[in-house]
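Methods — Computational structure assignment.
A single polypeptide chain was analysed. Its primary sequence is given first, followed by the predicted tertiary structure written as structure tokens.
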Amino acid sequence: MTNLPDTKIVNLVADIGGTNIRLAITDKNNTLSEIETYQCKNFPLLSDVIRQYLTEKELLTSSINACLAIACPVDTDAIAMTNLPWKFSQKELKAELKLNSLTLINDYTAIAMAIPALSDNQKIKIGQGEAAKNLPIAVCGPGTGLGVANLVNINDQWHCLGGEGGHIDFAPVDELDIKIFQELQKTKQRISYEQLLSGYGIEQIYAALLVINNVQVDPQSAKLTAKDISTNALNNTCVTCKQALSQFCKILGSFAGNLVLTTGSIGGVYIAGGIVPRFVEYVRNSEFRDRFEAKGRMSHLNKNTPTYIITESQPGLLGAAAYLNQIT
């Protein structure tokens, strides 16, 4: 597409999940504006919601460079979302919307790419550790699942290395870990870290503890949601809920510490996702950092590696903006 001299050039970014799609405009400083959120179920096609946004913002005649962060694989032209019926061709989407450029990235790539752009007001440090600039970084995010990604800096540009790190085998560390592992083995053929470090994981830890501690509860209390469990733990109204959240923090610390050893991410490990930012102080006062550092002969590496909780409300949009600005 050829840009006319008087055509307005706009950088459009999107964060597309299974429930919501967020769209925004970004500038060269990764500053987001005109942020709008739409419910995906209200649109039969992705192109429909993007076109509505461009119409609302009076941008249909602009030259659009778009970067879309989307919750599915993006390595082929044909895209099929995991949790939505949306299917489309990248080439056809670009042509249909008359975009100047179109780049699709995985949603967790976007979250990882946001990290170097975070200010001190968009993250909270947990524990000690200081890192020099541009060293490798890891990010993990307990949420619906357990996302994992890594960042490396090459020639002053950040590159994301994705993967399925949340699905590696869970390794029990203390006696309670072992008991929870044994309880889960009764119903699971294989237990990954995602089975414990997710919303569903918190629920599984809680259910296992009810059996381990021989706690008799009514059927409704036995099926508490992750939000219920964390709320009860924070309010100190349920001993088992508090124990479940404490063990969750320990296991998260072990897993995050393992990322330092396996990926050399001494530039820091960042915790993303929708769960942990809800109880930052609880994590700070838990054994998260103790387990993060407890790596035997390699403990010195982890003690010097900082850990952070991402508190930025739109890391996907911010990361898409950083990615787009890096390639344009």
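Note: The chain is about 35% helix and 25% strand.
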